[in-house]
Design brief:
The chain is globular, with a radius of gyration of 17 Å. Helix 1 packs parallel to helix 2 and helix 5 (172-179) packs across helix 6. The chain has a seven-stranded mixed β-sheet. The chain has a single domain (47-235), classed as Vaccinia Virus protein VP39 (Rossmann fold, 3-Layer(aba) Sandwich). The protein has helices spanning 49-60, 78-84, 99-106, 129-134, 172-179, 198-207, and strands at 5-13, 16-25, 30-37, 40-44, 67-72, 89-96, 122-126, 147-152, 182-192, 210-220, 225-235. The longest helix has 12 residues, at 49-60. A hairpin with a 2-residue loop joins strand 1 and strand 2 (16-25). It is built from six helices and eleven strands. With 240 residues, the chain is of the alpha/beta class.
Length: 240
Amino acid sequence: MSKRFEELAFHSTRMGDISLRRRFDPALGIEVYEAKLDDEFLMSSAFATAEIALARLGLDRVIGADLDVVVGGLGLGYTAIAALEEPRVRTLTVIEALGEVIAWHRRALLPDAAGLAIDNRVELRSADFFACVQGTGFDPAVPGRRYHAVLLDIDHSPEHVLHPSHAAFYSAQGLTRLRDLLHPDGVFGLWSDDPPEPVFTALLREVFAEVDAAVVNFPNPYTGGTSSNTVYVCMNGDAT
């Protein structure tokens, strides 16, 4: 029988102390994997529905085959794994600021993401997603390289960022730079812990040709009710 609680990894990073832990939840009857940054919960395997929906909703809107996809934020790996379930995905570049999180996957600490680190379509790149957008893009060898989809799950929401340096991305200028890294018919998907925000949705519509804000509901066994996240799906429509 596994331990009731185990800290699998702990690291002091530039963003704070990050830890990965596994615990048996008697209410759910399963082992739950959780990541924390200092005292703040970042993600839990018990609530992965919207992270999976980010990949599925985003890639459903991409036309064509042989897709090159970027995932911003590795975390527990649910968005990346869901993206790989789409048979049209040719390459998947995962941009993760903390090399320590990449190490969790290379050490196979997360059974739900088993195989991610050794899939030959996948590159796990230790880099700052937001700095890549402001710089030359996601491929150091090909500056300005365009992708069919970029799926982002790093901050809690555009209003609640993990680090102040991220805030500039959620502006017309930052989003336009991201748009320019998409193919003309490419898609940008964004996860948010908050309900759809009208002001931010209007900003997205200034930059992208079409924007949907999907509310993803899922059961919350701890409250006995339903919780929800938001997935924004933005179509480029840039003919340049």
